[in-house]
Amino acid sequence: MKSKGKRQVRVQVTDVPSFTKWLYKTLPTAQLLQVDSASRTALLSNLHSKDYLALTQCPWVTFVDVANREAREEAHLQNADLTVNNVEALHLRFPHLTGVGLVASVKENQFDSADIDFKHRVIPSAGLTGVANPHATTMATLIGGGGNSSPAGKGVAWQSTLTASDFANLMPDNLNQLKTLRVTVQNHSYGVGVENYYGLESQAYDRQVLQYPELLHVFSSGNAGNQAAADGPYAALTGFANLTGQFKASKNTLTVGAIDTAGQVGLLSSRGPTYDGRIKPEVVAFGESGTSEAAAVVSGIALLVQQAYQKQQGGHLPPSHLVKAAILNAADDKGSPEVDYAAGFGNADALGAVQAVQENRFALGKVGQGQVQKIPVLVPAGTSRLKATLVWHEVEGLPNAPAALLNDLDLKLTSPATGREWLPWGLSTFPHKDSLLLPARRQVDRLNNVEQVTLALPEAGPYELHVTGFGVNTGDQDFSVVYEFEQRFAWAYPTAGSPLRSGEKNRLRWHRPINTGEKGRLEFRWAGTAPGRWQVLQERVDLAKEQLDWTAPADTAGLAELRMVIGAEVFATGTVVVSPVLQMQVGYQCGEEVMLFWPKAEGAEQYQVYSLGEKFLEPLVQTADTMVVLSKNMNGSLYYAVSPLVAGLNGQRSLTLHYAQQGVSCYIKNFLAQRFVTDTVLLNLELSTTYGVAALFLEKKVGSEFRTLSEIPLSRQVGYVLQDLEPAPGRNEYRIKVVTSTGQTFYSPTEAVVFAPAKYIQVFPNPIKAGNELSLITHDDQKSQILVYNHLGRLLRQTHQDGAVKSLSTAGLSAGLYMVRVVSAQGQLLQARVVVF
């Protein structure tokens, strides 16, 4: 990292005091900025190129690495869709899993801790002392947004607690501080440019995870998928080995790539392998604009996996290698079959990851050198695919060692009944594009601390997973194994209870683990007390695409069902709620009352009104009407939303409305003159509502008081055009008087209009102090010539201006009487006297 021609580096040493003495003696101009005794690293600055040779020859230095580089966020949020990663299905199936009590840290710039989506759920930290950043706010929202602003503001772990850290320091945060804040997931959605080696940062993150086993670091893979590494074994191979930061090559962390809304890995999503051939990213998630949001989604999923384990195990947190194994094992295969360097082990499935923990489909264990642990697995009939994943977090590697892996475990699947064995999937690591694109094959893995084995269409019955300590060099090695039995078809969205948008495109999603070439038939019916007949929406659905766009019937709220028919099998979604998204508006806010209203949704039995409570939107009142009148004294919140109710189920919730920011006071939404200077006085009136209005009047100021000019006929409309047929030349002032059915009277703000008939001219102020601006009002708003004469008739200045209101500077005029003449483009002459003092 260069700074004014001089450089900074981070060095690792064997003896900090001895190195410090050597540094002061050998490189007296160097500056020692920071020393970390735990990792035996030192940050140096004020170094010249010639100083590098001296550092490499120092007997105490074991590795010289780059210092902190400028970190950059990896793309801004375009849109979010939690259905892609089965988060919405998880929220519906397990509403008690919200992340409450768990803490996530967002390491980058500061997020907006005042956002109502984080209300009372932010822990102050040094990372929350600067200016709020939109990217960081988006990441925090995806992880733990409470959905207070809108349904789109709801994150994965929506009741978790959030804190922040600054990515100016690329090394891990202080361990004691992380423990004090109780952080168990830290999100890193940033990069520093393509780097493909195992350095001091990679080593430090691996070490910290061993020191704090419950902590999971989640990194975005980067948005450099079309670039190449500059050095190393994969140098100049465009499209490979382009993770944006050496810290992402760490072993005990989780790196996340991005897929788009069509389920394809994005072109710019950074890919592996790492410098030593390891698989990165390990998983992908939805990130339409980049891997930043994909990482944030997975961070939220990790929190929910932690909570599921915590509830099951009496409050204890799981080791992070179990959380990682659950996420990787549940991931739905994307990209090339099985594992690949673009999608890793597939697209994260939040529901599947949590179910693995809740259904006890996991094992924790440890093995030493040469030891074997056997895990029995009973495969049920009808399983489409058996999948098992082994993950272990091991001792940190040595920077720039040929391979980062130190403790090598092996996974294999066996059938005791037949004696057959199946090895995990692996990839070619040969540094050539054709080799790196080869499909995965079953093989012994000597590089990764993640291994996965699958078996398509397994026979029902007993199997065993064997975990063997092949090369364990540092005592017993802890590990986690997670397994699942995939079904031939599973709905991801919608599922029972899902709200669908009527009259809009809804993207239906499902999981089809094995493509048999069969087509499906998609059907729909209205549900409820008298279910309708099934309607065919599409014949011959391509099941391999795992998604289909469907527009629900418009302007209707009701219960419905969808189903996919495959041969003789039927896969139903369960009952879903179809409804429009209602727009809540302010009718009025007068004194201690506020009235809110919304359009009617056909088929809705009632409406649920929500208000913002201490932390989240809370149900306030149910009503069969399309409006509600609230007492401000009884309801202190400024934020409200509404959703239709069908058979007690919530439909789509509206955007949350801050009623004091809608420009509506007492019934009057807008009262404006069509033109400030005019020869015809026309005024536009827009009411927020006519509810409760008994009479309307247009009033005009006459002298010092307002008098009724006309009564406005009431109707169902809220917009009016009003006219004064007898305005006085010059300034006229108007207001609206509203009389309610309860006898209350409210007034609009005053609106002024200058009536300027033909041959009208007005100058003001008059008299005027020399040096001030003189304003001239005329009927003609086209370009005119302005001339100023003194009392002797001598022309002193002239200019040209357009507009009904023209201005003239009096700077340089002495006290006295002047004549101002305005000559229009048609030659019409208007003039007025002005006194300057």
Automatic annotation (TrEMBL):
Residue ranges occupied by any Secretion system C-terminal sorting domain in the UniProt entry: 763-834
Pfam families according to UniProt: Peptidase_S8, Por_Secre_tail
Molecular-function GO terms, alphabetical: serine-type endopeptidase activity
Gene Ontology BP annotations: proteolysis
SUPFAM superfamilies according to UniProt: Galactose-binding domain-like, Subtilisin-like
Residue stretches making up the Peptidase S8/S53 domain: 133-346
Family: Belongs to the peptidase S8 family.
Protein name: Peptidase S8/S53 domain-containing protein
Lineage: Bacteria, Pseudomonadati, Bacteroidota, Cytophagia, Cytophagales
